[in-house]
## 1
Amino acid sequence: MKHGFRRAGDQRSVRTHLILLVLAAVLPLLIFGALMIWQHGQLRYAAVEQGMRDTARALSLAVDREIGASKAVLETLAQSSHLDASDFAGFYRLCQGILE
C-alpha cells in the first residue's frame, strides 16, 4: 500500500523526517547560543584585563607620587643648615617635626 508521504525507493519514515526537521530548526539556535556565550566570555575577559591595566597604571602613579614626595623631603633635609653646622640634635628635632 502506497502512502502519499513515501516514494517508491524512499525508506525514510515520517519520524525520521520530523527528527531532521527539529534538528534543522534547533541546531542553528544551539550554534548561535554557543557563539553568544563565547563572545560574552571574550568581552568579559577583555573588560577584566582593561580594568587590571587601569588599576596597575593608577597604582604606579600613586607610588611615583609617594616616591617623589619622599625625595623632595629628603632633598630639603639634605640642605638643612643643621647639617652644615654639625648640629645633629637640631637636625634630629627637625626630622621628628617632619615625621609628625
## 2
Amino acid sequence: MGIDLSKAKWSNDRVYRSGSDYEPYYFYLTALSESNRFDLLLGYFSSAAISILSLGFAKFLSNGGKVRMVINNVLSLQDKEAIVKGQSNDLGSKAFDINNIKAIKDTLDEYDKHFFECFAWLISKGLIEIVIIKPKETDGISHYKSGVFYDNNNNAVCFKASCNFTAFGLLGNLEEVDSYLSWETDLSQTKLINQNNYFNDIFSKNAQFVEYVDIYDIETVIKNEFGNKDLEELLIQENDLLKKKQNLIKNEKFNSFVSEIMDKYETIRKEPKFPFSEGPRDYQSQAYENWVKNNYHGIFAMATGTGKTITALNCVLNEYKKTERYQVIILVPTIVLVQQWEEEALLFKYRNIIKFSIIIVYHYLYMVTIKAFN
C-alpha cells in the first residue's frame, strides 16, 4: 500500500475554507500524507507551519519526501539561523531518523531548539531546498501562495491559497485554499503544467523578473520593529504556538482525521520495504529487470561484497509491490548462511520466517522459508 494522491479524500468542491467542514490545514495534512514531493511558491514563510503540520510532514518525510520552496526575503531570526546552519552544513554529527515517523513528529511538534536542529538538518540533507527572491527593481516583495504536491504515480495536486505558509496562516486567520487534481479535468492539468513551469523557472534561477537573495542578506523580523500585519505572522513564540495547537486538538473532526492518517501509517510501516534510504544500487535494479525479462529464471553472477542477498530479496520486494503478497523458498548449504539470510530478510521487514533443515545421506541441506500473505 503506497502513497496515492488520487485515493485521498478531498473536499467535494475542492475548496477548503476556515469555519467549514474542510479547513485549510486539512488540505495540507491530506496532501502531505499522500505525496513525496512538494513545491511551494511562497511569500512569507515560517517553520512554525511545519510544526503545526508535524504529523503530515513526518509522514511526508517517511514517504521519501522532498520540499522545494521559493520564499521572500523576510524571515524570523530563528528561521534565518536554521537555514544558514543547514545550507552551510554546520551541524556536527547531528542526525535524525526520518523513517521513524513518531520520533520525527515528536521533534517537529516542539517548537524548540531540537525542532530547529531538525529543520537545519533537513536542509543540510537536501530534503528541504530553499530559494530566496524579491522583485527586480521594485520595493515590493514576493507574495505568492501556491504550490504543487506530487506522488510517485504521476498524480499531482495544484493549489492556490489566500494564506501564507505560517502558523497564523493555517490556524489564526480566516483563509481559503482552492485545489486542482491533475487526474480530473483538462483545466486542472493545464493549471498544473503552468504552475510547474513557472515554479521551475524561478527555482532554477532563470527568471529575469526576480532578484535572487543570499541567505546572509535577508531581512529578519524583530518584535515591535515592524507595523506590517503580515510580518507579525513570523513572530510567533513557542507558548503562542502551543495554545493554537491545544485549540486544534480539542477539535473532534481534526482528531478523527489524524487517527485515519496514523492508522494508514501503521499499515504502511509494517509493509516490506528496501532497508536503506538510498535504495538499491543500479546494478541491483538491473539484475531484477534482467531476471523478469528472462521469465523469472537466472543466476546472479556477482562479486563478493556486492550484495547478492540484498539483490535477491529486492527481487522479492519488487514482486510484492505488484501483488501485495510473497511466498519464497531459499535453499542454502550451511547454518551460517541460514542465519545471514534471516538477518537480511528481517531488514526488509519480511515476516513469518520459518527455518528448517533436511538431512540427505551424509550431506546437510539447510533451508529458510519466508511465507506471508498480506
## 3
Amino acid sequence: MSINYAELEKIVEELKDFVIGSICKKVTQYSKNSLTIELRKNNKDLSIIIFIDPKNTFLGIGNFWQAAPKNPYHLTMVARKYLNGLIIKDFFNEKNDRILYFVFDNFKIIAELLGKNGNFFLVDNEDRILSVLHNRVGEKRIEKEGQKYTPLGSKTQKEFSIRNFFQINPEISFCKKITDYYLKQICIDKLDKEIFNIRSEIVKKNQFLEKLKDDLENSDPLIYKETADMILQNINNIEQIKDNLKIRYIQNKSASENAQYFYDLYKKQLRKKEQLSQFIQTIKSNIDNLTKKIEILNESKKKVESGELNPYKVLSKDDENKEKKNTIKITKENGSLYDFVTLDNGKKLVWGKSSAGNNEILKKFGKGNFWWFHVRDYQGPFVIILDENISSEDIKVASTFALHFSKGKNAGKASVIYTRCKYVKTIPKILGKVIYSKEKEVIAVDDPNLIKKMLETRNDN
C-alpha cells in the first residue's frame, strides 16, 4: 500500500518551511528501493526517507534503519557530486498526483511515489537525467541516465483523502505517523518473508530426513555377517553352498578371504548405520530449532502489530546480522578458516581450522577425485590432498595432519578414514557434517616433528 496524493500534500505542507532554504548535506541510497536526503537549516538536521517499493511506497522522516552499503550505489555518488552543500530553492508536489520536487538552482530531484511504477530522478536544469533509482525502458518513455526526463502524461482521476487512522492523535506530527505506519508494514513484511523462508527450509529438511530414514530402514548389516558365518561353517565344502549364499560369492578370492571381506563389510555397514542414526538426530534437532525460531518470529510480529515492539529494533537487528555475515565472508576470503602446506613431491594439502573451515574447503577444493581425510571417532579437521593420485607417503602425511589437529591427538594414534572427495556429501544447513562412502582406513600416529616440518612450507603457498 502506498501513500496517496492527499497524504503527500499533507507531508509537503508540514515540511515545506524547513525544506525550502535548507542545505542538502548528502543523499544516500540504502538499497534498490530506498534512500534518504539529509538536510540542515538553522543548526537543525532533518532526514527525509523515500521508500519506493511495489508494496510500500512512502515519504517519511527520521534516521534510516539500514546501515549504508560499504560500496555506495552509483546514484549516491552522483547525487553527492552535484548536490552536497546546495540550497533547496523550492519544494512541492504536483497537484492531485504523487510526484514530488526538490528544486535547486541548476538541479532537481523528482520522486515519483507511484508504487511499482515509482522512481527517483536527479536531473539538471535542462531535464537531462544525471542518475536514476531504477533504469527502465518503456513504450512511453525511457528512464535512464543521459536521457531527457519526460513527465508522466496522465494523472489519476480518482479522488483521495487522508486515511482516517492517520488523523488520530493530532498532537503527533503527520510525517511521524506516516513513517511509523510504513515502518511497521515493512517490518511485518520482513518477518513474514523470514518465516516463509524458514518454513521452506523445514520442508526440505523433512524431505532429506525421510530419505535418511529410508536408507536406515533398508540398511541390513547382518546379511554380511550371516554370509561370512555361513562360509566359515562350510569352508571345506564351499563349492556346494556358494551358489545358495544371499550375497554373491567372489570367485577370485578364497573362502577365508571371502569370509573376512564380508565381516569387514558388516563392520563398515554397522558404522554407517550408526552414522545415519546420528545424522537423523542432528537433523531432527535442527528442525526443532527452526520451529522454535518461527515461534519467536511470530511472537515478534504480534508485538510489532500491537505496538509493543518498536520496528526499528527488529530492522536494526536484522542489519546487524548482515554485518556479521559480511565479517564471515571477509574472513573466508582472507583464508583464515583453512590453511595450506606443500608436500615434498609438490602436491598441496589443505585442512580446515573449524567446522566452517571444513565446509569451506569442501566447497572450494573438494573436486571429484581429490582425496579427503578425517579422523574416525573424534572431532577434527577435514584434510584434502589436491591431487587425484596419492602415494603411501601422502596418505601418511594427510592422516597425521587429520589426527594432530583433532580431539584425538592426546591418544597418540587413531583410525583415519579417507576417500575421494566425490564420495563426500555435506548435509544442507548443518555445518561440518558429511556423509561419505567407499572409504578406506589407515592407523595414524601423531608425529609433531613431521607437522612442524610441513608447517614451515606455508610460506611457499
